[in-house]
Amino acid sequence: MVSANTNTGASSGIGAETARVLALRGAHVIMGVRNMGAGEEVKEAIANEVPAAKIDVMELDLSSIASVRKFALDFASLGIPLNLLIYSSARAYGQSKLANILHANELARRLKEDGAEITANSLHPGAITTNLYRSNSLIMGLVNKLGKYVLKNVQQGAATTCYVALHPQVKGISGEYFADNNLAKASSQATDVELARKLWDFSATLVKK
């Protein structure tokens, strides 16, 4: 049985599907969500499908350092081990995804340097039919009409996340980038070691404020 797994952005789309798959695998899933109502709905839907599922919904707004700190304290108070941390939120999509890859690479480097048996990887789920563009009716219209021909559905989109999180073949692999359930090559900017260090230092400064 997999112990606690914290999954951010779990109230919809890939995050919700990832939570469902983890629950099916016997994991104790902690869903970090901004919208508690939506999170509870996802929890209920998973529980209906997997009666034995162990899921907790906790409030987490990643745009607020105060919220992140409260979430960390609340999780620590549960007294359970953390085996997986899956970040699956989407904000300013292109920039946030680049930052995710850089952060994962730098985290992997630091963990290896410290001799910690912890891995950190990043991935691209592919182009997916989610509600990411719900605020733009024109784009949503195109997605609804053409998406089924060129885009992945949510289950297909969550596949790589679940593969990296759960597959035995990925055990021990760190600092890598995945796509379509395989190792992939990230852009030159995403693999820029110096840029990753600068982002880490900048993030650390923001957190300390």
From TrEMBL:
<dbReference type="Pfam" id="PF00106">
    <property type="entry name" value="adh_short"/>
</dbReference>
<dbReference type="InterPro" id="IPR036291">
    <property type="entry name" value="NAD(P)-bd_dom_sf"/>
</dbReference>
<dbReference type="InterPro" id="IPR055280">
    <property type="entry name" value="TIC32"/>
</dbReference>
<dbReference type="InterPro" id="IPR002347">
    <property type="entry name" value="SDR_fam"/>
</dbReference>
<protein>
    <recommendedName>
        <fullName>Short-chain dehydrogenase TIC 32, chloroplastic</fullName>
    </recommendedName>
</protein>
